[in-house]
Amino acid sequence: MSTIPESVAKVRARIREAAQASGRDPQDVQLLAVSKTKPANDLREAFACGQRDFGENYLQEALAKQAELADLALTWHFIGPIQSNKTRAIAEHFAWVHAVDRLKIAQRLSEQRPTDLPPLNLCLQVNVSGEASKSGCAPAELAELARAVAELPNLRLRGLMAIPEPTDDPTAQRAAFARLRELKDGLGLDLDTLSMGMSHDLEAAIAEGATWVRIGTALFGARDYGQPSR
């Protein structure tokens, strides 16, 4: 099993090679380390390798890690589905939110974002594969949602996020990511972010314009889904 420093180096090499193969600057693709269910010491190891951005899905687990790692200059991203009763803590303790798919949630985040903090960076999640089990707004509903969210104070709408239906077919992978890119470009808004691509498909995502790739397994190994604190 690779150590975390070895894994970080391998993932960064994959990102660099995928960007170069697509004629992109590797600096334009950022690595978001998905650290859900992983202990704080794993994040410290990744931090020692230069990793600064970490994504969490479970609020209580994330808040506990934030307290334990308060001595480190980390940027925290909330990447899981958001319930209404969790919006205040998310608005207060995170710099990015990647999975908003309802105006009500965006409105609550806007109202509850402390005014002494910078605007909360926000991505809208789109269900590009039309899976009933997946969160995300329908593509047909995106333009109306995006326009409304873009007007909210204390938020900065940065772009779109998706988790396409898993497939090992690179052509199908690229098609789903291309769909998200086309949706972003078609909104006519000043957006700079595509949060897409994970451990198994980051190359396809980068080829289609990903600016954040969300990587967990390839960095930290298989996740422990025992009893995460939510």
Q: Please, could you describe this protein's structure?
A:
- It is built from 9 helices and 8 strands.
- The protein is of the alpha/beta class and 230 residues long.
- It has one domain: TIM Barrel (Alpha-Beta Barrel).
- The model has no long low-confidence stretch (mean pLDDT 95).
Descriptive tags:
single chain; 230 residues; alpha/beta; TIM Barrel; 8-stranded parallel sheet; 9 helices; Pyridoxal phosphate homeostasis protein; pyridoxal phosphate; pyridoxal phosphate binding; Ala_racemase_N
End-to-end gap: 29 Å
- Total strands: the figure is 8
Pattern of helices and strands: HEHEHEHEHEHEHEHEH
Characterize the overall form. Answer: globular
CA gyration radius, whole angstroms: 17 Å
Largest beta sheet: strand ordering: 7-6-5-4-3-2-1-8
Classify the secondary structure makeup into a structural class: alpha/beta
Largest sheet: 8 strands, parallel
- CATH classification, class level: Alpha Beta
Beta-strand portion reads: 15-25%
Can you tell me the CATH topology? TIM Barrel
CATH homology superfamily: Alanine racemase
The whole-number mean of residue pLDDT values reads: 95
CATH architectural grouping? Alpha-Beta Barrel
Number of helices: 9
Helix content: 40-55%
- How many structural domains can be distinguished in the coordinates? 1
Ranges where pLDDT stays below 50 over 5 or more residues in a row are none
Would you kindly provide a brief summary of this structure?
With 230 residues, this protein is of the alpha/beta class.
Question: Layout of helices and strands, plus pairs?
Answer:
Layout lengths: L3 H18 L8 E5 L5 H9 L4 E4 L2 H10 L6 E4 L8 H7 L2 E5 L2 H10 L7 E6 L13 H12 L4 E7 L8 H17 L6 E3 L6 H6 L4 E4 L1 H4 L10
Parallel strand pairs: 1-2, 1-8, 2-3, 3-4, 4-5, 5-6, 6-7
